[in-house]
């Protein structure tokens, strides 16, 4: 007769201490932080990378589908570019929608894996980061997760080589899992897209590779201060790390925060559905672009790619190219000495649950340059006019380079005085620790807010010059 299964603690507090030690360690066992840029530069020179714009007619294995006009791959896999129609009503329903628009959107129903491998060296957790080329990144090569692959990629639908180290993440040992959660991607450009964000610890001797390096969390935090260095997929995984809560007090209890958000989510009537790309109103298609009639928002373009260290060396594909540099910002304010950030319950047409917690400001300022101040996004001017002394953190980061071309945002955390800012309807104050707790569950924190969470952790590694106040933890 077998013995009963032993129970175990629901929380691993020792693991939180190990993660905190890694975050406090800025000298890794394998590479100095100041040498990472040189390593990335060396990998660029060692490989053959090239991205060139092409007209749609030069796309190989991609075509505009008869009838719908959707841009599809001949295999039926990877992704499609379709149309999306979004209608938002006030509650209770008014006679006319508050917002109603149509746009192109990427539909990729398969769930990809964003996985970082962890291992202890000299008593400190290190994480295996990859020098990975993505065609849409402005400098092509950035610091990426150990594995970054769609299901089409790791099942080799492209006919290329196997994704290295994928087996650690497809069927992970649950005793070795640090992070494993489905998270959304950009709801403005994707239709209900999710990826599996994972960190898995190993005791194996992982084969050496010129494109992989072990780094501590403290080293990665330092690198998050650099423009266009740590890619979006790495940032979203890092934001989900279960650090210990160093600030157990907050303006609102966790239950109050969740109740407020549940009310915001249930109180919105937002309906999104797919439509044929050929029928999207307000957009026009040319030989090399699909773009808005006003020349704003973004374009759909096509590129030819050469990447000698990828599973497939040459390919063509469509990409979304935003118009202008984005701005993503948290306003930061202390209550009784505890830092909080101002979050909004933001609706985006492509999100699975339509509403997620988002940064205070998330927009492309150029799209609002022509409108009156009253019609601009709330708090946009407070961020744009912030003096350098108020800026806790800022860097320019690229968005997902596998689907977006030159998509960059300035990520900022701005201090405000107690009486400067009052939360508007749809906004509330929360601590970073409260948001980090919510990243353990999918579809609560949007991808832009998750990047900012990862960046706020970087403040502890290197506070802004001249900034004397307590760091956001």
Structural summary, described in words:
- The protein has 473 residues and is α+β, with helices and mostly antiparallel strands.
- The protein has a domain of 156 residues: EvaA sugar 2,3-dehydratase subunit (Nucleoside Triphosphate Pyrophosphohydrolase).
- Helices cover 18% and strands 33% of the residues.
- The chain is built from 10 helices and 24 strands.
- Strands 6, 7, 8, 9, 10, 11 and 12 form a 7-stranded mixed β-sheet that branches.
- Helix 1 crosses helix 5, helix 5 crosses helix 10 and helix 6 crosses helix 10.
- The chain is globular, with a radius of gyration of 22 Å.
- The relative contact order is 0.17.
- GO terms for molecular function: lyase activity.
- It comes from Kribbella antibiotica.
- InterPro entries: EvaA-like, EvaA-like_sf.
- Pfam families: Hexose_dehydrat.
- This is NDP-hexose 2,3-dehydratase.
From the structure above, extract its key features.
single chain; 473 residues; alpha+beta; Nucleoside Triphosphate Pyrophosphohydrolase; seven-stranded mixed sheet; 24 strands; 18% helix; 33% strand; disordered C terminus; NDP-hexose 2,3-dehydratase; EvaA-like_sf; lyase activity
The average pLDDT score comes to: 92
Distance between the termini: 50 Å
Q: Class by helix and strand content?
A: alpha+beta
- How would you name the oligomeric state of the polypeptide chains in this document? single chain
Shape: globular
Report strand %.
25-35%
Percent helix range: 10-25%
Q: Regarding CATH, which class of the domain at 254-270 and 323-461?
A: Alpha Beta
Radius of gyration: 22 Å
CATH superfamily of the domain at 254-270 and 323-461: EvaA sugar 2,3-dehydratase subunit
The third-level CATH topology of the domain at 254-270 and 323-461 is Nucleoside Triphosphate Pyrophosphohydrolase
Point out poorly predicted stretches. Answer: 462-473
The total strand number stands at 24
Largest sheet, strands/sense/barrel = 7 strands, mixed
> What is the CATH architecture annotation of the domain at 254-270 and 323-461?
Alpha-Beta Complex
The number of helical elements comes to: 10
Protein name: NDP-hexose 2,3-dehydratase
GO molecular function, one term: lyase activity
Pfam families: Hexose_dehydrat (PF03559)
Binding site for dTDP-4-dehydro-6-deoxy-alpha-D-glucose 2: 188, 283, 346, 362-364, 367-368
């Amino acid at each position: 007769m077998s013995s009963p299964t032993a129970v175990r603690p629901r929380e691993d507090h020792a693991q939180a201490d190990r993660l905190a030690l890694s975050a406090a360690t800025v000298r890794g066992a394998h590479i100095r932080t100041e040498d990472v840029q040189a390593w990335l530069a060396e990998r660029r020179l060692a490989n053959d990378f090239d991205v060139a714009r092409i007209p749609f007619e030069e796309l190989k294995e991609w075509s505009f589908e008869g009838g719908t006009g959707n841009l599809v791959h001949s295999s039926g896999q990877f992704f499609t570019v379709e149309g999306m129609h979004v209608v938002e009503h006030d509650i209770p329903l008014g006679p006319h929608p508050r917002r109603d628009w149509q746009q192109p959107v990427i539909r990729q129903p398969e769930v990809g894996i964003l996985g970082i491998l962890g291992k202890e060296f000299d008593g400190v957790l290190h994480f295996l980061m990859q020098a990975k080329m993505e065609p849409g990144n402005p400098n092509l090569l950035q610091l990426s997760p150990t594995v970054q692959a769609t299901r089409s990629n790791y099942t080799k639908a492209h006919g290329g080589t196997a994704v290295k180290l994928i087996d650690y993440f497809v069927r992970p040992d649950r005793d070795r899992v640090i992070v494993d959660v489905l998270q959304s991607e950009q709801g403005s450009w994707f239709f209900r897209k999710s990826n599996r964000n994972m960190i898995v610890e190993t005791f194996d001797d992982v084969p050496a590779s010129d494109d992989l390096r072990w780094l501590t969390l403290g080293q990665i935090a330092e690198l998050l201060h650099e423009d266009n260095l740590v890619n979006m997929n790495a940032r979203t995984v890092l934001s989900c790390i279960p650090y210990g809560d160093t600030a157990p007090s907050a303006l609102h209890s966790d239950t109050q925060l969740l109740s407020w958000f549940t009310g915001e989510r249930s109180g919105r009537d937002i309906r999104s559905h797919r439509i044929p790309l050929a029928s999207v109103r307000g957009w026009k298609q040319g030989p090399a672009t699909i773009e808005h009639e006003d020349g704003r928002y973004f374009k759909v373009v096509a590129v030819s790619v050469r990447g000698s260290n990828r599973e497939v060396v040459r390919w063509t594909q469509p990409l979304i190219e935003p118009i202008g540099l984005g701005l993503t910002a948290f306003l930061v304010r202390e209550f009784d000495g505890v830092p909080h950030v101002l979050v909004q319950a933001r609706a985006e047409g492509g999100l699975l649950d339509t509403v997620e917690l988002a940064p205070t400001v998330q927009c492309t300022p150029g799209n609002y340059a022509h409108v009156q101040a009253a019609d601009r996004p709330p708090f946009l001017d407070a961020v744009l006019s912030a003096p350098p002394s108020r800026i806790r953190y800022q860097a320019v980061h690229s968005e997902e380079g596998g689907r977006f071309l030159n998509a960059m945002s300035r990520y900022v955390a701005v201090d405000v005085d107690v009486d400067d800012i009052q939360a508007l309807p749809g906004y509330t104050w929360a601590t970073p620790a409260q948001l980090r707790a919510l990243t353990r569950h999918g579809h609560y924190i949007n991808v832009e807010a998750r990047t900012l969470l990862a960046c706020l952790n970087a403040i502890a590694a290197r506070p802004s010059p001249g900034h004397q106040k307590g760091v956001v933890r």
